[in-house]
């Protein structure tokens, strides 16, 4: 049997003393493209931090490629949520180069191997020209490409991408999603990517991991994004409406349970 | 920056005939090569206000040291170092809060004023501490400055790489195993020592002139990190030596000239980068 890329076995994770995910269990096969969905505070970032070894699990175990998670694993490429820019005057190249083996002591000296690695990562996301400009002059989508390049530096087998589509316009969302998908396929990487809106990702993902009320539900879009499955997960009536090739998750009373309302820039979710 | 090399300045031979001038140039060199690169990180991390506060804590330490008859440099270093380490441990709870830093700053300045009140030679000591006294640096002090500079540069050389990573992208650095809290503490300890050194030349009130101005100028130009660190050291050195030369020629205080050169450099860098931007777009 092939070892799954990711095993989460009866795991309970807390953030700031509050249990966010309670006794969740799932396994993700190698090479899967998984979209992590859930409302603000449902535990998407907490799950990522758990997988990175930054939040200890209260129960159970988290394994990546069969090995219990630990901090600083080179097998995982991580893209945090976009945040306030530091050092916007520096070029994109400098920013990506700083991330290559940035945890080692010494001077920020790149060396020939380092420069080759940075160049290869930038080429993979088609950002060699972009990287010459100061980061502060780049658009959100362009910065995302640099962040994506960084995740590739250690040649990881698993990518954890925290809201890579947030604050992009719809055309860029689809473009970025396609880029990540192609990259994952050519390199045989497993991808876990959190998102607020499922629609730019339709047709690309193999699985959906839906987080709600401390629980997790893993399956295909057709299994998970259904009225029955989500009503059971939320414990409240939720309708799934498909219209014009798009999917809408609507809670009773008209509110969208999975709303794209803060796609334009709010980054307050846990 | 026309005055980078004192040898080209008129009257240079006469200027360097004096022992106190040679000592001053050496001291400025030792201080500038530390303040430039440390300041580069300080500006990048947005912690310049913290450095300002540390220098004020150092002022209380220095006046306290004078009161008990110890060298003010020792008092300044110790005061700033203790405050820097505490600030590092307190982390975001203090370092990012300007009210907290402002409060520490005013309380320690008040304590410094009290210590001065008990000192007999208070007026001259206060001026030297507040505005610097580079021409009064002794040979013994030079030895201490050399020791501090070597120590600071060694420490910076060891931690520069993870510090850069942690400054630019804290979440990613944490995930990759960078010891964030340890780096915070080590860096603020380093800032404290650099501040103490810098205060010998510029005084506690003008620590910004050598710590922040050259580094901010270099960062404004968008120079890559390693080159930026070295360029900051070089620019700090030019401004410190330039200040000494101009002070010799005009008889104005060195601190004034270093501050003025720092300001001019920063504005010039802004104009220059705007000009280059217009050319390329």
TrEMBL record, chain A:
One of its GO terms (molecular function) is ATP binding. Residues 6-238 form the ABC transporter domain. Pfam families: ABC_tran. The keyword Ion transport applies. Keywords: ATP-binding, Ion transport, Nucleotide-binding, Transport, Zinc, Zinc transport. The keyword ATP-binding applies. GO terms for biological process: zinc ion transport. This is ABC transporter ATP-binding protein. It comes from Acetobacter indonesiensis. The lineage of its organism: Bacteria, Pseudomonadati, Pseudomonadota, Alphaproteobacteria, Acetobacterales.
